Amino acid sequence: MSQPGEGLTTTQAPFIEEARSAGKKFIDQPYDLYSEANQETWRKLYKQIRPTWDKYSHPKFLEGVQKLALPPDHIPHLDEINRFLEPLSGFSARAVSGYIPAYYFFDSLRMRAFPTTITIRDGSKLDYLPEPDIFHDVAGHVPMHTDKQFADVLVRFGEVARSAAGFAAEIKDHDVRIQKLESVIKAMARFFWFTVEFGLMRRPGGGKNDLCVYGSGLLSSHGELEYCLESPRVQRFPFQLEWVVNQYFEIDHYQPLLFIVDSFDHLFELIDELERWMPIGKLGNVSPGEPAVNEEDLESFMNAQVGMTAGA
């Protein structure tokens, strides 16, 4: 049985292991389990990154930080975050015990619920960890969700996932269906990575080369947030859909290649184009490489197909 203050450190939280063992994916945030070390980690992360946000982040992100009253001195209560968030865009942050298979993650976005990790990274690894944590999810993602236009982008992406499941359900040959679906899932994951997670945008009202950051993977990393816009080692290209869906990525180091969209309207149009590419075969055989499509991801889309076939 978990005890108050025992800690919710990423990969070291008994509460999370208990929830997973019980098959619970969506959970409550057990706030009293956070240790003082967990709270200090949040304070250090926030203090370190706040000036970097001011310099490099999208103006809508900074507005979101203010609108959420994102606390600098303690880990946020999700209920308090949602009290500010829901009236603005209809979105809510919903606590999860860990990884959510791809279809269910995207479908949650369609329903305006963002699956949110509640653990926090070890204080000795402030700048990077491969797993998401509450700083990445709440400080990196959620401020953008206060903007209705960006929130609608996420909903639209969830609708594309639903279209992907329906598209695959129409393919009669089982082996062909699996191959095409794996390719589509890979294409969607790459699109999401190079936009919502690691996207750059032309700064509103700025010049052609004046860029800012809206991707949460960058916005939750003090080091990479500066590096992505200042380092000559980073390639930055205008977003090209055919390139993005065929571009593999690796998660264990700073990104060497990033893509630029013009605006949120442009991003919305790209998602529409992504959906149009499915039935005409442009996503059915994308290049190999990361990310891998695991059995849980594939099964989640296959289960969605069953529901559609049954008329759900």
Question: Can you tell me the CATH class?
Answer: Mainly Alpha
Number of helical runs?
Answer: 13
Shape: globular
What distance separates the N and C termini?
A: 39 Å
Given the helix and strand composition, which structural class is it? alpha/beta
Radius of gyration: 19 Å
Q: Mean pLDDT across all residues, rounded? A: 93
Essential attributes:
312 residues, alpha/beta, Phenylalanine Hydroxylase, 4-stranded mixed beta sheet, 52% helix, 8% strand
General description of the model:
- The protein is of the alpha/beta class and 312 residues long.
- The protein has one domain (14-309): Aromatic amino acid hydroxylase (Phenylalanine Hydroxylase).
- The chain is 52% helix and 8% strand.
- The protein has 13 helices and 6 strands.
- It has helices at residues 14-21, 36-56, 59-67, 78-89, 102-110, 134-145, 148-169, 174-197, 216-219, 222-230, 241-244, 264-277, 295-309; strands at residues 92-96, 113-117, 200-202, 211-213, 235-238, 257-261.
- Strands 4-3-6-5 form a 4-stranded mixed sheet. It has a two-stranded parallel ribbon with strand order 1-2.
- Strand 5, helix 11 and strand 6 (257-261) form a beta-alpha-beta unit.
- Residues 308-312 have low confidence and may be disordered.
Task: Please render the helix and strand layout as text.
Blueprint: H1 14-21, H2 36-56, H3 59-67, H4 78-89, E1 92-96, H5 102-110, E2 113-117, H6 134-145, H7 148-169, H8 174-197, E3 200-202, E4 211-213, H9 216-219, H10 222-230, E5 235-238, H11 241-244, E6 257-261, H12 264-277, H13 295-309
Parallel strand pairs: 1-2, 3-6, 5-6
Antiparallel strand pairs: 3-4
Helix pairs in contact: 2-10, 3-6, 5-7, 7-8, 7-12, 7-13
